[in-house]
Amino acid sequence: MSGSPMTVTVVEDDQSVREMLAAVLGHEGYDVATHATARSALAAASTRTAAVAVVDIGLPDLDGLELCKRLRSGGHTGSILMLTARHTVGDRVGGLDAGADDYLVKPFALDELLARVRALARRHGIGVERIPPGVELGDLVIDVGTRRVTRSGAPIDLTKFEFELLHLLVANAPTVLSRDQLYQRVWGYDQENASNSLEVFISQLRRKLEADGGDRLIHTVRGIGYTARTA
Ligand code: CA
Fold first, then answer.
1. Architecture of 7-123 per CATH?
2. How far is the CA of 36 from the centre of ligand 1 (A)?
3. Which residues of 73-103 are buried (b: 16+ CB within 10 A; e: fewer)?
4. Mean pLDDT per 10-residue section of the chain, whose length is 231 residues
5. Does pTM top 0.70 for this prediction?
6. How far is the CA of 15 from the centre of ligand 1 (A)?
């Protein structure tokens, strides 16, 4: 970190967890703001954007997912790390669809939390990348502004991560991107720390892209990673 410290917001109603996170993050040099309720966090977010918001899914007034959606619709551009005690994949994916950048399942190791926050803060610090308005590959069209994806004109419904993964591969096509590069660019952290979910996202993505019988666009490069190309 350079210049003024990055702001990290912690939204957690459990006082002991909240204070522990504030102490640990403060010790790391972040400027930490804490909130016990979603409404308090929303009020503060209207005047100040944190680089990273750590949001517990279980809050007394609004669900953490709802808070996440409202932060995003209110123009919050910082990263959001969702804390969840729920183990189902549905809730994890739900958190990501609500606009969270990453999630961590409770109970978590503090080192892991700090690694995630660091990665998300770094990504925030890099700023908004220059993004071309649209990317095409064969009959696939990605409209970055509206986040709409079509194949031969037919819309394809993708989750946030599927979209980012596809966009990254297509925007760099035909360059082969390594697993590490994909993890770092899409998730913001190293493969060692990640759950082994890249294959799952790739196969979901392929299934959606090929649902209408279209040719394969995302190819596995054995031992290295993935590339997007036509045939
Ligand atoms: Ca809680």
1. 3-Layer(aba) Sandwich (3.40)
2. 9
3. eeebebbbbbbbeeeeeebbbbbbebbbbbb
4. 75 94 92 95 87 92 91 84 72 71 85 90 56 77 86 90 88 86 72 64 92 93 92 74
5. no
6. 9
